[in-house]
User: What shape does this take?
Amino acid sequence: MSAITILILGLIGLCFGWFIYSKYVAIHIFKFDPDFKTPAHELEDGVDYVPTNKYVLWGHHFTSVAGAAPIVGPAIAVYWGWVPAVLWVVFGSIFFAGVHDMGALWASVRHKGKSIGALSENVIGPRTRALYMVVVFLVLLMVNSVFGVVIANAFVSTPSAVLPAWSAIAVALVIGQLLHRNMMKLGVLTAIGVAVLYVSIYAGSEIPLSLPSGLPGLGIPATWIVILFVYAAIASMLPVWMLLQPRDFINGMQLAVGLLLLYGAVLISGPEITAPAFNNQLAEGTPSLLPLLFVTIACGAVSGFHGIVASGTTSKQLDKEPDARFVGYFAALGEGSLALITIIAVTGVALAASPEAWHETYSHFGAGSVGAFITGGANLIENGWGISAGLASTLLATMVALFAGTTMDSGVRLQRYIIQEWGEIYNIKWITNGVVATGIAVGTCLVLAFGAGGTEGNGGMTIWPLFGSTNQILAGMTLLVLSVMLIKKKRPALVTLIPMVFVLCMSALASTIIFMQFLRAGNYLLMAINAVVLITSLLVVLESLSVISKERAKQRAENQSS
Assistant: This one.
């Protein structure tokens, strides 16, 4: 089958989501009000609450939520076959992710920029807030720990990505100052920033950099992890306009160019798909497609982490409430488009010239992943545009590292917010201090990375099997909070209730399967964490159903009396 057919049908679906479905939900369900005073204006402080141009904010939100996950998940899930992966990415982006992300942003804006966990107290009750925030913190801990490992490994395996990845930070700092002081227009800064970034990518391919040695007692990958978390701690305490916004925006533009190259390469070269539509040569021990597909592909279909970002940093920067559609829903479609091209890159002739060659690369579940995307994508760009595979590999490896890095930046900042919210809720004043809260956030990530992974720092990967199911449970809980909000406002709630039921059922079933795997393997730490997530989410669901039942009864009584 031609990859062009998959690409065109996928894009038609995403266009339907943007031009029709998202507009319907924004106007008739969430009812965005252009005159509503957003927290960015009401609580403006120049650090976290900053009214922001919607295009700049889109760049921040998109690159923060994307990370490497919309590449990793689809590149693994195609082992079951490309058809299930494509269907979940397209329909998930339209009816699940877009509504989830846009809704979480709207809910937070309507509650003074509170995180989705904190605002659940107002929507459902104080017990829900306490339970919800535990799951949120665990998801952030997993994300930050594992992405630190992903970036460190990328720097070791692809030294040519080191120079452009760190150059992007310097470029962002300069652009942040110029933009904040209104010294240059956004369009000019964008062109200059992207140009400098691509010059650094070329320079990186010519001048690969690597650490000469590790810190005492640590290997080189572990040393990179320490450096990355020191950077993330500093970045998370800077005003958002100084580094977070411009870096994420430039990275978003870089992704736009990368997607243009990849999509254009497909249209120019017209590659054939060599992977099976449904794989009937699965290795022994391969997990079942149902329900594991729906937690393997999270970002790119629907992801609970998006709700944390939307309600954690993005809601504090939203200039006007209607901007939530562009920032939230369109960013979800951007992720879907990245996941879609990832599937094409790892299933076509650019990666494997024949079905037999593809099966050799994908010999078992978990094979391929980011490496397959970089190889397949680089060959795709070379075949379509004539750019050398080496330079294209550097470009794609840099894109992965930059995305994972921006997610780390936002993730550590979000962990700080959660810790400070705990301090305010439980009147623990000393942890409301930004430096202390950041230290706790980074400290817990390093404890996981090195406590569970030894001096190699791979502890984040140890807990990774839990991320997929926990992340999707969180997505279901966010959709549940949105459903309660809509029901209380006497608005149609099926757009959130139907995705909520599906996601919670699939993720709970997947989590139960994973729990049994941990039990058989004797991995009691992960088994205990898994049990905490399952029990916590069940209690949140029961509490929410009670509130919904009471609200329905109240509304029926009001209708009868009137």
User: Anything to note?
Assistant: Residues 524-561 form the longest helix (38 residues). The chain is about 75% helix and 0% strand.
